[in-house]
Amino acid sequence: MHDERCEGNDYFKCDYCLQSWSEERPMIEGHKGSLVCAKCLSAAYVAIVYAGQGEMGVAGPLKDVDATHAGPGCTMCLERRAELYWRSPLVDEALICRRCVRQSVTALEGDPDFGYTRPAAPAGMVVTDEPRDDEDDDA
User: Who's near 120: CB < 8 A, 6+ residues apart?
Assistant: First the structure.
């Protein structure tokens, strides 16, 4: 998100934890200035990819959200998909879809300036959705 009340790095804030951008907190930008930081992205990745946890979405355009077609919309891609979403524990309206989680992890991992690596499955966790090499190609 872009916080119009702030300047410098404080202008750029993660939509999911509201922390400002810094060299130690790399971020990925989505549509219309939405941002997810590496820490929130890692939490979403573990929840969705490894644990298979989240809210199931309903496919369809955001403009059709009503009582009949209810379902979450992704803060990053602004789409509604029939897949798992991770909801921020701090910002209730901030959700990220499985596709955006996977694409963002791949993008951040490929940026040599940050040295980010995708999180490993926690010890003892039963993996429900094994990561794939083509994960940034999900449709």
Answer: none
Pair 19, 99: CB distance under 8 Å: no
CA–CA dist 91, 16 (Å, integer): 6
Residue 5: CB partners within 8 Å, gap ≥ 6? Answer: none
Whole-number mean pLDDT of the chain?
81
Q: What pLDDT shows up at residue 64?
A: 54
List the domain boundaries for the chain: 8-119
CA distance 44 to 41: 5
Distances from the Cα of 21 to the Cα of 35, 45, 64, angstroms: 9, 20, 33
Pick from 25, 31, 15, 34: nearest CA to 92? 15
Distance CA 111, CA 50 (A): 23
Q: What share of the chain is helix, strand, coil (3-state, %, to 5)?
A: 25, 15, 55
Say what the pTM is: 0.80
Residue 97 CB partners (closer than 8 Å, separation 6+): 57, 72, 74, 76, 77, 79, 81, 83, 84, 85
